[in-house]
Amino acid sequence: MSEAADELANRRLEHPPSGRDTTGGPVDRVTGFYASLEPNLPKWVSDMYQSGDLAVGEEGLHIPDASCKIFPDDSHAIVITSGYLDLFQAVAGDLCAGVTHLSDGTILEPQLSPVDMVLRIASLLRQFRDKFLIDGHALDTYSLELSPNLQRLAHNLAMAAGLFAFAHELGHVGAKAKTVNNPGTSEEQDADIFAFTLLLAAAPRLNLGMSYAGALFSLRLHACLERAGFRFSDPSRSLQERVAWLKGGIRTKLSSGLIERNDFAWIEVVLDRFLAPVEKLLPALDQAQNPQNIL
Ligand SMILES: [Zn+2]
Questions:
Q1: What is the pLDDT of residues 42-64, one digit of tens each?
Q2: Which single residue of 46, 70, 197, 224 has CA 20 to 30 Å from 135?
Q3: What is the mean pLDDT of residues 270-277?
Q4: Ligand 1 centroid to 165 CA: how many Å?
Q5: How far is the CA of 234 from the centre of ligand 1 (A)?
Q6: pLDDT tens digits, residue range 166-211?
Q7: Neighbours of 14 (CB within 10 A)
Q8: Could you tell me the pLDDT band of residue 275, with boundaries at 50, 70 and 90?
Q9: Which residue has the higher pLDDT, 39 or 105?
């Protein structure tokens, strides 16, 4: 057994993942991400995975994190915490509760006003940091009843965000193990390029609109969490640079038929409109709670 597989097995034993399937049975969501990308992975990735030199898995820690670690025997482990994936799910549910229309033009009766949604997500992130959560719900909020359609949308958005985070870490494996790099770019940018290229290769098998929504969601939530005081093992580069690059990349695909213009516009409206203000609001909420910080 490789050192990566050995350590991952021990970590999962110590912190069992919280992922559950529809029947309530335990499920490793990170292994699921690998399986959904598998048909489009470069051969070196599947070779590493099959030989055990690449171990991937979900670890049941509360703190949100996604990382790629290299071991002395040259094996690699990609680990995403259950807390991170659960948080994607909780925030996606709140986002879906506030949307006024879907990309196909369907008009919805939102359960939250834009202001309430921004406050609710900011409160959720702070309480998540302070570990005041019960079953994924912040103490000062009630759980929202989403229609089956919106529940599915929230679930797909959360899983697509996790998938992008996973694909980005695979890009780090490429950079470290296979020296996959492009002239004039950083390893962080190479990891994003790898992830984006992989998701393009997987389209239309994996809906490109949803992959793009997941990527933007993952980047924006990462920035919000950093503002809320979390520090990630994989620090990544600035949000503005990453978002601008991602949006530029997806715009070049608009005429390809792989992504609908309506979906593209809807994703930007929902994620930019609601998560950008959350990011700005978080430090202000902390100051309001601890007024001495203002002085
Ligand atoms: Zn990275």
A1: 999 999 999 999 999 999 998 89
A2: 224
A3: 84
A4: 9
A5: 5
A6: 999 999 998 876 665 666 678 888 899 999 999 999 998 999 999 9
A7: 10
A8: confident
A9: 39
CA of 40 to the centre of ligand 1 (A): 21
Query: How many Å lie between the centroid of ligand 1 and the Cα of residue 257?
Result: 29
Q: Say what the pLDDT of residue 139 is.
A: 65
Q: Of 71, 95, 104, which Cα lies nearest the Cα of 144?
A: 95
Calpha distance 284→229 (Å, rounded): 13
Single pTM value for the model = 0.91
How far apart are the CA of 237 and the centre of ligand 1, in A?
8
Ligand 1 midpoint to CA 149 (Å): 33
Kindly give the distance from the C-alpha atom of residue 192 to the centroid of ligand 1, in angstroms, as a whole number: 8
- Domains of the chain by residue range: 3-81, 84-286
- Separation of 170 CA from ligand 1 center, angstroms? 9
Copy the structure tokens of residue 125.
Answer: 């992130």
Q: Using alpha carbons, list the distances in angstroms from residue 96 to 81, 88, 262, 268.
A: 23, 12, 17, 14
Q: What angle do CA 94, 62, 74 make, to 5 degrees?
A: 120
Residue 226: what pLDDT?
Answer: 86
- Are 185 and 208 in contact by the 8 Å Cβ rule? The answer is no
Q: Quote the ligand 1 centre to 204 CA distance (angstroms).
A: 25
